[in-house]
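User: I'm new to structure prediction. If I give you an amino acid sequence, what do you actually give back? Let's try with this one:
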Amino acid sequence: MRLDQFDADDFEVLRELYDAPTSGSGPGKRRARHPWNRRALTEREADAQDRLSRTFAVHYNRRWAQSVRELIPPCWPEHDELTDELDTLCWTWYYAHWDERANALTPAEFRLRYLPGFRSRLPRLLGPNGLLCQEGKHPVGWRRVVEAQIQVLEAIGRDRGAAKAARIRLREQDFGFGVE
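Assistant: Good question. You get back a string of structure tokens that encode the predicted 3D arrangement of the chain. For your 180 residues, that looks like this:
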């Protein structure tokens, strides 16, 4: 994949974030914003990252997907965790192949570590009906059960009595070690 496959303006905006020095934390220090962290991006930067990740997804599907199970589906932005992973993988690829700190080992590490790791996580990142997504049939309401469980969990989290009872139960489980 060549860098000229990315929109030049988008890439430049994001590369400035990528190359920005980390200023640390503490009073008066501004934390670095990284292009792979969409929550830290402006709307313009997030749009640019979206286009960059789409271009990367097309490249991934052409070059590295060996079966339908390994395809990044067009609905990937509907899968939040996959979106995060794809943004990160895109910049990991850039670091391995184009960053001035890269060496002969970084592309090898990308191919031997990060790419297979992504491939192995892809089915889980797409959810229980991920194969439908990969076949171009994104199911409506695919997260309905998950969202319902999140609401229940949030309600329990607001119930201080239930939280206290759970902590007491956990403390009672000493697994025979006799913690006093």
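You can read the tokens as a compact description of the fold. Here is one thing that stands out. The CA atoms of residues 157 and 163 lie 7 Å apart.
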